[in-house]
User: Which sequence fits this backbone?
C-alpha cells in the first residue's frame, strides 16, 4: 500500500509518500521560518496563507520524487487536528479534493497520533510502549496500547515543553525557533552557574509544569541585562542551566512513569520519545540513562521525523488503512483533539494491533 500524507497544522508545509513496507519514497518539508521570524513566533494567518500558496506544488513534487502518479496511491491522508485551524483546513481540503477526484480513501489523521506512531515507521516495535510526547504544543506521557488506543498518564499543567524552550530563548536573546538555539548555546555553557527551579520534581503524579522555570529564567535574564546585553558565555551558562533543569524534570517524571508502566503492563518500557523537542541530543542522553536504569530501551525517531513532517502522517494512515479504517469526506477539522478521543473512533474496527 502507498499513501500520500499532508501536514499543515503549524508552520511547516509538508508532503510525503510512504509505503506499507516502511519505505519513505519522498518526504518534503517546507519551513515558513523566515515568514514568521520577524514576529518571534508563528502567526496563524500568515501560516494558513503560506500553506495555501505552496501545498499544491509540494504535493506534485512529493509524487514526482517518489516516481509515482496519483493513480499509484491507495489513500490520501492529512493532519485534521489539533493545530492552527486555518492551516489544518488547507491540508484537509487538499487531501479531500484529491481523494474525491481520484476516488481514493481519505484519512483524517490526528497530528499527535502521527508523532506517537512515528517510531514504528523506523523501528520494529510492538505495542505497548510508554511515550513521552514533547513538542511545541504538547507535553504528555502516554501508554500507547494499540492504534487509536492511547492512555494519558500525565501532562503539563501549563506550558508545553517546546513553548518553554521558545520563550526561554527569546528571554536570552536567542533566535527563533528557540529549541535548537538553546541547545547550541548550552553546549559551551556551565549548567551549574545559575540555580534554577525543577518544578514537579519528586511529585507523586506524572504531570509537568514549566511556567515557574520560565519565570525564573525571566528574572535571571533581566538581572543580567538580557536579552540586549548578553555576552555569549552568560547566555550559554543560562541556556545550559535551563536545559539541565528540564533534563532533571524529564528524568524524574520518566523514571516514575516507567515504574508505573511496568506495574500495569508487566514490562519495562520501552520508552519512546517523540515530538520536536525529542530532537534535543542532551535530553535524549538524559532519557537514555533513565531507561537504562529501569532496564528499558529508549527509542526515538531520527531527528527529521521528530519535528513536524508528513511521513509520520502517511505512516499513521497506513497503520489505520491496515485495520480497514478510513474517514468520511465530511470529516470536520478539529483545532482541539485529545488523543484519548481516538478510542471511540477506532473501537468499531476492533482495532487491536
Ligand atoms: O513537533 P514540532 O515540530 O511541532 C509541534 O507539533 O509543536 O515541535 C516544535 C518544537 C518547537 O518548540 C521547537 O523549539 C522545539 O520543538 N525543538 C527543540 C529542538 N528542536 C526543535 N527543542 C529543544 N531542542 C531542540 N533541538
Ligand atoms: Zn508536531
Assistant:
Amino acid at each position: 500500500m502507498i499513501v500520500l500524507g499532508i501536514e499543515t497544522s503549524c508552520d511547516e508545509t509538508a508532503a510525503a509518500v510512504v509505503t506499507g513496507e516502511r519505505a519513505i519514497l519522498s518526504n518534503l518539508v517546507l519551513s515558513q521560518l523566515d515568514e514568521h521570524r520577524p514576529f518571534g513566533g508563528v502567526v496563524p494567518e500568515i501560516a494558513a496563507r503560506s500553506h495555501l500558496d505552496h501545498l499544491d506544488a509540494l504535493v506534485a513534487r512529493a509524487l514526482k520524487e517518489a516516481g509515482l502518479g496519483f493513480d499509484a496511491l491507495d489513500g490520501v491522508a492529512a493532519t485534521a487536528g489539533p493545530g492552527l485551524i486555518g492551516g489544518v483546513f488547507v491540508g484537509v481540503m487538499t487531501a479531500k479534493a484529491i481523494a474525491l477526484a481520484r476516488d481514493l480513501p481519505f484519512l483524517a489523521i490526528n497530528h499527535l497520533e502521527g508523532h506517537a506512531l512515528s517510531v514504528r515507521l523506523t523501528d520494529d516495535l510492538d505495542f505497548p510502549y510508554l511515550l513521552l510526547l514533547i513538542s511545541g504544543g504538547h507535553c504528555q506521557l502516554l501508554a500507547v496500547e494499540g492504534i487509536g488506543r492511547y492512555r494519558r498518564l500525565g501532562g503539563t499543567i501549563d506550558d508545553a515543553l517546546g513553548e518553554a524552550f521558545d520563550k526561554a530563548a527569546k528571554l536570552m536573546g536567542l533566535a527563533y525557533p528557540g529549541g535548537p538555539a538553546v541547545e547550541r548555546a548550552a553546549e559551551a555553557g556551565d549548567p551549574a552557574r545559575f540555580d534554577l527551579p525543577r518544578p514537579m520534581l519528586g511529585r507523586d503524579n506524572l504531570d509537568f509544569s514549566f511556567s515557574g522555570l520560565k519565570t525564573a529564567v525571566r528574572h535571571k535574564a533581566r538581572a543580567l541585562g538580557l536579552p540586549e546585553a548578553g555576552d555569549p558565555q552568560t547566555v550559554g551558562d543560562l541556556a545550559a542551566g535551563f536545559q539541565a533543569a528540564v533534563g532533571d524534570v524529564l528524568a524524574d517524571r520518566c523514571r516514575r512513569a516507567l515504574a508505573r508502566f511496568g506495574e500495569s503492563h508487566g514490562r519495562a518500557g520501552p520508552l519512546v520519545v517523540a515530538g520536536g523537542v525529542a530532537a534535543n541530543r542532551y535530553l535524549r542522553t538524559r532519557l537514555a540513562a533513565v531507561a537504562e536504569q529501569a532496564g528499558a530501551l529508549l527509542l526515538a525517531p531520527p531527528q527529521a521525523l521528530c519535528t513536524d513532517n508528513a511521513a509520520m502522517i502517511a505512516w499513521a494512515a497506513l497503520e489505520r488503512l491496515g485495520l480497514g479504517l478510513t474517514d468520511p469526506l465530511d470529516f470536520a477539522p478539529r483545532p482541539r483533539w485529545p488523543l484519548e478521543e481516538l478510542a471511540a473512533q477506532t473501537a468499531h474496527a476492533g482495532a487491536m494491533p
